[in-house]
Amino acid sequence: MESTKKYGRDERHALRALFVCLFVLVLATLLLEIKYDFLPLVFIADPDGDLTKLLFALIVVLVTWFILYLLGGLFEKLTSSKVGSHAQARSMWKLIAYAVWILVLGIMFISMIGETGSLVMSLGLLGAAFTFVLQKPLLNICAWALISYRRIYRIGDRVAFGEVKGYVLDITTMYTELREFGEWMRGDTFTGRIVTVPNSLIFDQPVCNYTRDFPFVWDEVVNLVTYESDIEVAKRYMLESAKEVVGQLMEQNYERYRRRLGIRDLDQLLLRSPELRMELADSGVNVYVLYFCPVELRRKIKADITERIWTKFMSDPGVGIAYPHMHLVGSVGKG
C-alpha cells in the first residue's frame, strides 16, 4: 500500500513537471514569434511590448519553479543525514526557496516598472493598497518570517497551538499544517486529521514546542497507596518498574539533555534515573515516580511502567491501592 501511494505521488509530480516544461516551450515559441515572426500562419502584434514582458515574466516564473522543484529533492537527499532528519532538511530548503522567489520576483518587478520616480510612486501605492486590503495575509507573512527567523518551530516539530496539537507537516507563508494528535483520542494518539492553522495565531496564542531543544519530555506515574500498606515496599516496586523501562534510556541521554539546557542552573533539577515523590491524601499516600522519555513514546512508556507496577502490587498482599469507598460505623436499627 505504501509503495502504491509513493508511486502515485511520484507520478503526479512527474506529470506536473512535464506540463510545466510543455507550457514553457509554448510560451518561448510565442515570444520568439513576436520577435522574429518565423511562423508563417501565425501573426501576433505587440507594438507596446507589454505582451513580450508578460510572456517573459511567465517563462521566468515557470523556469524558476522547475529549477527549485528539481533541486529540492536533491537538496533533501544530500543534507538530511547531515542536519539530523529529513524534516529539518525540508525546512531549510523551504527558507532557501522563499528567498530565491523573493529575489526573482523583486528583480522582475523593478525591471518592469522602469524609471525610479514611477518605481517609488508605484511602491507607495502598492504598499497602501496591500496594507488596507491584505491585513490578515500580511499578518500571516509577518508571522511566517518570525517563525523562520526565531525558529519557533520547524517541520517535524511537535507543537501545540491553543487546543490544537500535532506534528508540523509544512510551513507556508500563510498557514502551518499539523498532523493532529489528542482531541478525542487519549494521550498522544493520532486522530488521522490534518489541521491547517493560520501563522498569525502565534501573535494571539501561546505556542508550545515539545521538541525544539531536545526530543524528550517529563512524565510521571502516580498511585494512591492505602495507609495500611507497606509504603516502603510500594515505593520500591514503583521505582524498580520505572528503572526497568526507562532507567537505561535516561542514563544514556543525561549528558545530552544537560548540554541542551538553555539555563545551566536547571541541570541541578535534571534526573539521571527515575526518582520518587510522596504526598499525603485523604484515603492514602500518593506515590509518584518521575522520569523523562522520548516525546513520541510517552504514552507507551507510561503504560509499560503502569503494567509492571500493577503486576508487582497484585502479587504482594502487603500493598494495596486505595480507591473511593465508604465505611459504615455502628449498627442499623430495626424497623
Structural summary, described in words:
With 335 residues, the chain is α+β, with helices and mostly antiparallel strands. The protein has three domains: 2-133, no CATH class; 135-212, SH3 type barrels (Roll), CATH 2.30.30; 216-314, Alpha-Beta Plaits. Helices cover 53% and strands 17% of the residues. It has seven helices and eight strands, in the order αααααββββββαββα. It has a five-stranded antiparallel sheet with strand order 4-3-2-1-5. It has a three-stranded antiparallel sheet with strand order 6-8-7. α1 (2-36) packs antiparallel against α2 (50-83). The longest helix is centred in the first third of the chain and has 35 residues, at 2-36.
Instruction: Determine the N-to-C terminus distance.
Output: 72 Å
CA radius of gyration is: 31 Å
- β-strand percent reads 15-25%
Largest sheet: 5 strands, antiparallel
What overall geometry do the principal axes of the alpha carbons give?
Answer: elongated
Topology as a string of helices (H) and strands (E): HHHHHEEEEEEHEEH
Separate helix tally: 7
Look at the structure and give the mean pLDDT. Answer: 80
* Spatial order of strands in the largest sheet: 4-3-2-1-5
Q: Report low-confidence residues grouped into runs of 5 or more.
A: 1-7
Structural class: alpha+beta
How helical, in percent, are the residues?
A: 40-55%
> How many runs of DSSP E, i.e. beta strands?
8
Q: In total, how many domains does the architecture comprise?
A: 3
